[in-house]
């Protein structure tokens, strides 16, 4: 489809849908999908609008530009994305490769409109996977004192390659504050527990010790506050007393793969809007 | 909330959302929820619109009436429902009472805006439950030759009591064609299998024989074609080889209760639109 | 079935199954179900054995007594329960009645072999439900300074009525240490979150604030450590951004009802064995 | 672990567990896992026994051989498998590669103890995947009149390579009767629907037309009767009205991958026993 996706949020008020939809209709745009959410508790309006621009009566860029007047009058924050679009994405890894493989596989199948600019690892374990996939691999040493410098290098890579989304695919490093802030809303992590349970290290071991009957994984935006960013997607799976911590790791992998895949898909299709510490998600 | 729910469907065309939303905004209605679906394969547009009418600049009835011009111009079928609303509902039962109990319980809790006009049974097993709940119980004999007459009696009861929705809560009788047609789109059934698997009698026994690893229940609109009407909701549950047919009945009850409760809730909140043999459902 | 259920745990060693099964076979008992778990990490063996005693060659009491020699030689802790059996159960409530209703309903259907000795409430909201069900209701005032005395009264009731299982069916009071210890392993609670997430008060509000995409409920044994006892069963349900805290309460009820029902069923059928802070559960 | 897995089934009778467990104990074998199921309806006993043979007092082969006397006396069918073991497995494909990829990936991770002898395709689409994985690929032409000859070639390949398990990983060919019979109980298929719903071609299209709210996949043993063999595992996923047939294919892939992976794992770990048209599965 040749088109546009509009994400918008603004203070709640009468007539928003009418105004936005009329703007689209006035220039012969076709609303393909209109998803909306009114947050009564915070007096906020959120929407995602998918527009087929095939029959548009004006130039697409003029259409986008002209929206400014309406947007401002609504005191809105908004964003247009031209379709089709492939988001430039970097994947950060350590040793574990199941999330990376899942991302590569779904990308190849066309499930996720991303272009993987590079795979960056603080170990070189995943290099062969990157090579096979024909994607540049960058090994960045982050051990001990090299950590601070390592994050600078990653930053430079992301900027050089005009990366729009950074995915932490089981990247076992805590991000420094400045990094989280510089790329705010553009870093997605998979945490291997059903957050907010089992924050921090070794969540499957924690889950085993606690004797839970369901384990899970959480895909979330990264903020300076460890494992506490807005949640995009969660997945769970039943476990029993006979499952060892190793079994939980095995079973949890399926949760992680599904949660991260859906999380990325929602993000790159502009199906998420972050508001405070929550993510509004219009699933497909 | 004082308000209106509008359900509408029409041939797909540019500007529908704009026109509908503008109509609401023009008279100072507030769109609380706007759910829309465009069926590309059939060129049809469907929407459910929840309108807060507190600040409406005209009389609500005039607002509803005035919509006619727009509706006709869109070649639409549409329906307004005043809120709050309690749908007049009859529950048909035989012996089994778990679905009936679930409906009574959720109604009492305020989960389902219905007014139960009567409980009708071809056995009187559930009479005491009806009595306890203070709801009239009608025993209609349907054995053998009395079946045809029985359905006439039920029809008369439904018409007399101005029933808007008839729920078959494990009512073990096959409805005659004329009945299905007279109350088309206004009868909801719970079938104790994951349709279209195991149509007809003894679905749990069938499921046991087939050795399935998941059992289910299906809540659907009733049509003349047995167990083949539009599906509103389905629910499943894992089973294992050691579960006997009796265990499946026990476990299946939980599926049935949840599926019928959600199905009714969606219907009475006008969250369903029937199109051909499918039900569009905007869940909450 | 006329029979026995044997629960046993002992240090892991060769030949336990052979010895236990041979003891049963030697006296013509028939093993109907044999469930076993070896905990490698702790060097412990656990089993649940269901024995049909119809053809037993000795008196059942002699059979039970005679096991002592074997049990001691295995350094085991064990327990026999005669079947059929109805466990004497007290249900503690405050205002909320959905868990209570679920327990009553499933008991009536024969899903849970319990005899409800009494319903005890620190409010009298649930009295009418108890009356309808023909079960004694005891109102125990626990407000302010009466709390300590209240727990004494409850203790006396439980002892007087020879209660074997106490179910906290949304009983909104924190139990004193001495109470937890006196009835250790015999109190089951339902917590309205997916523990260990959202310990303490208002878990649905906490879940809403955190923006989780799945909510849950946890059925667990009560220990002195609040919400930290061995978990018997957990249940989850998907939620979305548009669900308010009230919606979470509504949706969570279904999790709570299912989790508590299964938890009680497992306990009264001797399908649980507590070991340290985990519950071994052999589900049916 | 150095050990044995024993699968056994026989007419139900007193003392089976005692006899089998005593045989193991008599020769200092250690029961690591003992799973048992008594089918009352058919008067049959089934068990899977995992034995650590580290401390065995006799030679393992003698232990296995000596069991014959007991086995015969129980009128049992039984099978011992030495551990660790890698089952020689052939994967049959057409064009679709997601199930193949899943199998390769989980094998590499150590989740499935198989040795893939070859990948056989009636198209050569998956050749590059086989090449990358270092596994021989055989293209067998099965179009039109070459079909009969094609199955002969596959048979020869399976026999030459001493294949013990054949996995149909979205192999779009109906197997001839003689083939199903020759390899009875040794062919596993993944069907892309929740069987027995939507047997035959295009199940996702069928599911779309029927308007189901859950789609699924079924992993089953292949018999001469199309899509009707014993079910090992099933997986489902929620769908909504807005999901097109293409969306169902996308979402269904996740069901297929999980169901086939678990199905194979259960089979190769001897966790399945086929009885009539049902599969007894002791999951891990």
Account of the 3D structure:
The structure is a homotetramer of 284-residue chains. Chain A has 284 residues and is an alpha/beta fold. The first copy, chain A, has 2 domains: 3-83, Alpha-Beta Plaits (2-Layer Sandwich); 87-281, Formyl transferase, N-terminal domain (Rossmann fold, 3-Layer(aba) Sandwich). Chain A is 33% helix and 30% strand. The first copy, chain A, contains 8 helices and 13 strands. Chain A has helices spanning 16-26, 60-73, 98-108, 127-133, 147-160, 177-182, 203-210, 245-268, and strands spanning 3-11, 30-39, 44-52, 77-83, 87-93, 114-121, 137-139, 165-168, 187-191, 214-221, 231-238, 272-275, 278-281. A 7-stranded mixed β-sheet of chain A has the order 7-6-5-8-9-10-11. In chain A, helix 3 runs parallel beside helix 8 (245-268) and helix 7 crosses helix 8 (245-268). Chain A is globular. In chain A, 48% of the residues are buried. The A-C interface holds A 37, 40-41, 194-198, 209-214, 216, 230-234, 236, 240-242, 244, 277-281, 283 and C 37, 40-41, 194-198, 209-214, 216, 230-234, 236, 240-242, 244, 277-281, 283.
